[in-house]
Structure formats: C-alpha cells, structure tokens
Amino acid sequence: MGITARGAWESVKRHFREMDVDVAAAPFTVVGVGDMSGDVFGNGMLREKTIKLVAAFDHRDIFIDPDPDCALSFKERERLFKLPRSSWQDYDRYLISPAAESIRARRRRSC
C-alpha cells in the first residue's frame, strides 16, 4: 500500500484519522526522505495544502525549514514538482522561514 504516493497517503490519512486529526483542515509537520522530482515523494507532498514540510533529504541535499508557511511552501513544492530533475537546491531560499537562518548561523559558529 505504501509504494505509491496514493497508497502512502491513504496510510497517512488513516494514521491521523485514528488520532482524530483531519489532515485536510489541520496543519501537520512532516519530515521526509526524497525530493519533489520523485514521483512518490513529490506527489505525496502535494496531497494537502496543510503539510508543513520542515525537513527532507535525498542522496544530494538536506532541506530544512523550521517554520514553513503552508501556502507558500505548497506553491514552491508544486513548482519544484513540475521542474524537470529538480533538487532541494532549486527551492527558493527567500521562502524559507527566518528561523532557518538562525540555525545556519549557530552551525557556522560551532565549526
């Protein structure tokens, strides 16, 4: 059931439904493995506009947005999905929440 975007999404909806959470109405946080060019991950991240994708990684990149705006990040994920062979490097950095900059600054100081 979880090898297609739809099958995986049905599993997600069931999991949340068992906790009395309507994923179509309530924003929820997601951490994932993949990128928007991938059929399963990319399609899955376009299933609901309430998804708050805070982190994702693939074999090339690590994506972090600690406090994403649901509407803006959905549109950006949609853009990346349509972009041939996109990667997290293509994500518009101006759309990433200000909290991400403080994480990058702390990481630079600790190195």
Into which percentage range does the β-strand content fall?
A: 5-15%
Q: Please outline the major beta sheet.
A: 3 strands, mixed
Give the spatial strand order of the biggest sheet: 1-2-3
Total of DSSP H or I helical runs spanning 4+ residues: 4
Oligomeric form? single chain
Structural class estimated from helices and strands:
alpha+beta
Give unreliable regions as ranges.
Answer: none
Count of strand segments = 3
Shape, per Cα inertia axes:
globular
User: Whole-Å distance between the termini?
Assistant: 43 Å
Order of helices and strands: HEHEEHH
The Rg value, from CA coordinates, equals 14 Å
Helical residue percent band: 40-55%
Average residue pLDDT: 87
Layout of helices and strands:
Blueprint lengths: L4 H14 L9 E6 L5 H6 L6 E7 L4 E3 L5 H13 L15 H13 L1
Parallel strand pairs: 1-2
Antiparallel strand pairs: 2-3
What does this structure look like?
The structure is a single chain. The mean pLDDT is 87. The chain is built from four helices and three strands, in the order αβαββαα. Helix content is 41%, strand content 14%. It has helices at 5-18, 39-44, 70-82, 98-110, and strands spanning 28-33, 51-57, 62-64. Strand 1, helix 2 and strand 2 form a beta-alpha-beta unit. The chain has a three-stranded mixed beta sheet. It is globular and about 40 Å long. By secondary structure, it is of the alpha+beta class. The termini are far apart. The longest helix is centred in the first third of the chain and has 14 residues, at 5-18.
